[in-house]
Specification:
The complex is a heterodimer of chains A (309) and B (264).
Chain A lengths: L2 H32 L6 H18 L10 H28 L8 H22 L4 E2 L2 H5 L3 E4 L3 E4 H23 L1 H11 L1 H6 L4 H27 L1 E2 L3 H16 L4 H21 L3 H19 L14
Antiparallel strand pairs in A: 1-4, 2-3
Helix pairs in contact in A: 1-6, 1-9, 1-10, 1-11, 2-3, 2-4, 2-9, 2-10, 3-9, 6-7, 6-9, 7-9, 10-11, 10-12, 11-12
Chain B lengths: L4 H6 L4 E3 L6 H4 L7 E3 L4 H14 L5 E6 L3 H16 L3 E6 L8 H6 L6 E4 L4 H13 L6 E4 L6 H4 L5 E5 L7 H10 L6 H18 L7 H9 L28 E6 L2 E4 L2
Parallel strand pairs in B: 1-2, 3-4, 3-5, 5-6, 6-7
Antiparallel strand pairs in B: 7-8, 8-9
Helix pairs in contact in B: 3-4, 9-10
The chains are: A mainly alpha (309), B alpha/beta (264).
Amino acid sequence: MNWSLFFGELVSGLTLGSIYALIALGYTMVYGILKLLNFAHGDVYMVGAFIGFFVLQWLGGPLTTHVTGWLAIAIMFAVAMLGCGALGVGIEIFAYRPLRNAPRIAPLISALGVSIFLQNSALLLWGPQFRSYDTFDLIGVKSYHIGTNFFISNIQIFTIATSIGLMAVLTWLVARTRTGKAMRATSFDREAAEMMGISVNRVISFTFFVGSALAAAGGVMFGIVFGQIFSLMGFTAGLKGFTAAVVGGIGSIPGAMLGGFLIGLTEAFATGYLPGGSTYANLYVFALLIAMFLIRPSGLLGSPVIQKV
Amino acid sequence: MKATTGALKGAGLGFVSGSATNTQITTDGTRTGYFFRTVPPDSSQSQSVSAYIVSKLKAKNVYIVDDQEAYSIGLADEVQAQLKAKGVNVGRDGVSQQQSDFSAIINKIPRDTDVVYLPWQLPPKGQAFGQQMKSLGRGSVKLMGSDGLFDPAFSGLGSNVYDSFFPVNPQDKRVKAFKKLHGGTELFGAPSYVATQVVAGAIDKACANGTASRAEVRAKLRATKISKKASLLGLPIAFDKNGDMVKKPFGIYHSVGGVFVRVG
């Protein structure tokens, strides 16, 4: 057994999975509240990556930042998360709220429209070229090894730890706070929640804010770990995040986290071990989605929907 | 380029490329008399690259990662075959041009690899690959790029980076003026400029008697002769029967202080 390869793919899969999990959380939260697949979510992730990039430029660029590298990263995260949170709220108000009582296909089409609008706006504003975060210049990348087989970089540790930290905060927010209770109530029965005095519109807006902020964190993480971002990066990432949400059980927050890590690990191990793995990694990922639909349509941690007839 | 052949040939048009390097374009016979190019073919590039890897870099283990496009696969196939013929151990894999996460494939590259060859077309992707190699503790492995990666984004990775590129005469006053104006980042412009010279020259000669047909223009393309002095490439331009330049050397470059310097 080549343990170096095994541990390498494990760390790569967890790193990539951390990003997919953050995207999947937005899909699953919105679906949990509105039963809407927000296909613009991947593009919100892309916008987050670009906001992080422009904040870095505003701070002086990776070589000559006015603050220390890690503080610059913290500012990039904060601004990107706030900016995309506001974008998510705006998308909900203008593209989904007017269609809340329309047939379910209408907001779905609207979501696709928002996705294309964001993609093309990014192409128009920022062009098709790749932008580099230059993480090496910003913070310096160090690689650590345990024995001769286990290698991990400080960036990978940072990504996995930050992602788990954000997921923990979200879990606390939903499970232990008054706002979280309102979110759960709205998800369970929107009308009953409204009759109990919960401001459903405010709860839905807050859900979009949090989901979009997590996607932005994923976008900035992607730029830091993999070095470069581009205008069309949201499409495939969004599909993978959606796949992660479905595999984990759409509507389930722990399911989205599990699904994200599972998709990341599938991609990494497929690349490392399966024939033509790097070429067909996406094939294996989406095969997992199809298999999940066939074997367990409600996902790993999702509950089957029981409908009265 | 291959996809346009039917339409252009069907209309009797000659066509000249300043960037299409695939070897078979001129050797498969389907475009003979119609197609000409002002860049050397991949067979020339692959010979220069494989010879340098073996004789100068003394590599015993090489890993090739193509980007799954026709240009990249063709070049990778040729370099792989030539390296194997010289007794080098060669591993091979591919990535998508859309991919930005190379960590999983970097894990697959054996630890005793001396050189990773990247026949890619997008310098930012080459830059991301090199940065991820470093972050995974593989920064000492030599990277050899192809003409598509001949860019400051790739050379800026450090002194472990090598590349191959078309001949360009750096002393030509037009090249100097271009570099001064644009920072010298787009050297594909040189063979494209020469391709335009070839086309303009052929049309001019065909029209000398006041009339011209497409067949005449093709014949004048075939008979092109541009002197070394008039060519930005630093070598005379004339075509063989297949449409390739008679003289077609490829240069090998090494990144020194973040800038490519010719070493072979």
